[in-house]
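User: What would this chain look like folded?
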Amino acid sequence: MSSIPGSAAAIDGRHPALRVRDLEVSFATEGGILRAADRVSFDLNPGRTLGLVGESGCGKSVTALALLRLVPPPGRIVGGEILFDGVNLAKVKENRLDKVRGRRIAMIFQEPMTALNPVLTVGDQIAEVLRVHFDTAKADAWSAAVDMLARVGIPDAPARAKSYPHQLSGGMRQRAMIAMALICRPDVLIADEPTTALDVTVQAQIIDLMLQLQQDMGTAILFISHDLGVISEIADEVMVMYAGRVIERSPAESLFGAPLHPYTIGLMETLPRLDGRPGRLPAVPGTVPDLRNLPSGCRYSDRCPLADEACRHRDPDLKPAGVGRFVACLKVAP
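Assistant: Here's the prediction, encoded as structure tokens.
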């Protein structure tokens, strides 16, 4: 398959673990069709982390859910491909997809208290994943679950495995979710805001843990967050979404050193400064547009300080803008 704007080359000669091409996800609403993901394309490479950032409502979580066909109704995938082992997961039958979910592609959801079953111990829930996917004996699955809880840094894992979710702290619940996601050693891990609502110390521990496990297992990670500070710590590449579209993609070092798209620049300016200057943090002016009533031309034109008439009449596609860099902006020279 030919390369696409925003795709990265295979790492060390290995093929991408997951290839997404022109993914489109729509919701039928009373006010019209809402396109939450619009022609989204990217590769996830083994042993690498792709950070996905943007404001709330930009389409990050919908994109993540679509990869496992978990978009809640009335949302549905209306176009594009999700290629895994040569199979398009967007079209495959549900029983075949069940063999991929949790086993080959795993997901850490935003809120562990709603993702974990409150009436089962965390050990039972982790062991169940092994039993479902590998028909593992009950005792062996329990032992593996305890071992994984210990590996993700939960103290006294044999005892904690017998705890119910409400008996664990937020950080421990998040670690249990990571243990459940990694118990089958997946090829791809989708982490949707995995450090949200955790204090900075626990955030750092979770990031270190995921990077260590990635190094051990070679897992490709899609790490979704609105927190650019967290993304800067974990991502090899960064993809920026706005109003359902990818508007910039770049190696992390390049993007944080010199962002190209005016929206990305605005996001960077919202980061806290370390020079000690007082004052309120700046914010990107305006709000994300209603996806049922997008502005004409560039979707960011009504908020962009650089927008002119050309921007209001043309919605730019991603174009090359340097080594490994792509941007969708008429104001950025090739």
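Confidence is low (pLDDT under 50) at residues 1-13. If you want, I can go into more detail on any region.
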